[in-house]
């Protein structure tokens, strides 16, 4: 079996090895990739990391089933894990960045142990902390996030470095039994910023209403609520 760092195409069967796609230095633009992921989301719940992934997801249109994570750096994957365990009938997509994921590495161990089959974590890995001034992250110095997820016990992981690899990864993100971890090596170029709402209690309440319905989300405020 190929080693965790081998640059081979993502397998079509679950593997505990991190895989990567060979090819020329094709530039992957994170907003293009996020647009393609969201175009196929169906009724999936989306949790963003803070900063750029918030902006990117919102740029394709607001949705009450988007949970914009503004200030909880390192918490996106665990929020998504909780949702996936509470809503096993819905796909949950965590779309975050490499800096945010590096701050929450311990969450990968918990997720691997809990095994939410409906969870996909997608990392936009531009090897930089964009929000604080484009300092380099550890992924630009050889840290392999997909390899860490694989070592923790994720059954399906991939490193994607070109468009052919992304095409293969899309079915993994949306339909494979998880937890799934896909690391997308993207350009550090910054598209125009689009800002969603930043009111945390409102984002939470709106998400709960859309997912559960007012009678469940606010039982004491709705006649007949439980």
Write down how many β-strands occur, each being a DSSP E stretch of 2 or more residues.
8
H/E series, N to C?
Answer: HEHEHEHHEEEHEHEHH
Please mark out the parts with pLDDT under 50 across 5 or more consecutive residues, or reply none. 1-25
Q: CATH homologous superfamily?
A: Thiamin diphosphate (ThDP)-binding fold, Pyr/PP domains
> Structural class per helix/strand content?
alpha/beta
Percentage of residues in strands: 15-25%
CATH class reads Alpha Beta
In percent, how helical is the residue content? 25-40%
The tally of domains stands at: 1
Assigned CATH architecture:
3-Layer(aba) Sandwich
Query: Using only CA atoms, what is the Rg?
Result: 17 Å
CATH topology: Rossmann fold
Shape: globular
Main beta sheet, described?
Answer: 6 strands, parallel
Total count of helical runs of at least 4 residues: 9
Report on the architecture of this protein.
The chain has 226 residues and is α/β, with parallel strands linked by helices. The protein has one domain: Rossmann fold (3-Layer(aba) Sandwich), CATH 3.40.50. 36% of the residues lie in helices and 15% in strands. The chain contains 9 helices and 8 strands. It has helices at residues 30-39, 52-59, 76-86, 98-103, 106-114, 145-152, 163-175, 200-212, 214-217, and strands at residues 45-48, 66-67, 92-97, 119-125, 128-129, 135-136, 156-160, 180-185. The strands form 2 sheets. The protein has a 6-stranded parallel beta sheet, sandwiched between helices. Strand 7, helix 7 and strand 8 (180-185) form a beta-alpha-beta unit. Helix 3 packs parallel to helix 5 (106-114). The termini are far apart. Residues 1-25 have low confidence and may be disordered.
């Amino acid at each position: 079996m190929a080693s965790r760092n081998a640059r081979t195409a993502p397998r079509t069967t679950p593997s505990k090895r991190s895989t990567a796609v060979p090819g020329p230095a094709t530039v992957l633009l994170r907003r293009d990739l996020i647009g393609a992921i969201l175009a196929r989301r169906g009724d999936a719940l989306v949790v963003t990391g803070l900063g750029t992934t918030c902006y990117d997801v919102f740029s394709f249109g607001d949705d009450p089933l988007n949970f914009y994570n503004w200030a909880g750096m390192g918490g996106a994957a665990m929020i998504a894990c909780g949702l996936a365990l509470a809503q096993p009938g819905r796909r949950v997509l965590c779309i975050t960045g490499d800096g945010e994921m590096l701050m929450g590495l311990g969450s990968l161990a918990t997720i691997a142990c809990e095994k939410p089959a409906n969870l996909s974590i997608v990392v936009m890995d531009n090897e930089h902390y964009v929000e604080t001034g484009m300092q380099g992250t550890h992924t630009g110095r050889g840290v392999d996030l997909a390899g860490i997820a694989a070592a923790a016990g994720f059954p399906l992981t991939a490193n994607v470095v070109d468009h052919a690899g992304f095409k293969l990864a899309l079915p993994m993100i949306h339909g494979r039994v998880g937890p799934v971890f896909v690391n997308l090596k993207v350009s550090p170029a910054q598209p125009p910023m689009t800002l969603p709402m930043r009111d945390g209690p409102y984002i939470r309440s709106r998400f709960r209403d859309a997912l559960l319905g007012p009678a469940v989300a606010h039982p004491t405020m709705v006649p007949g609520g439980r």
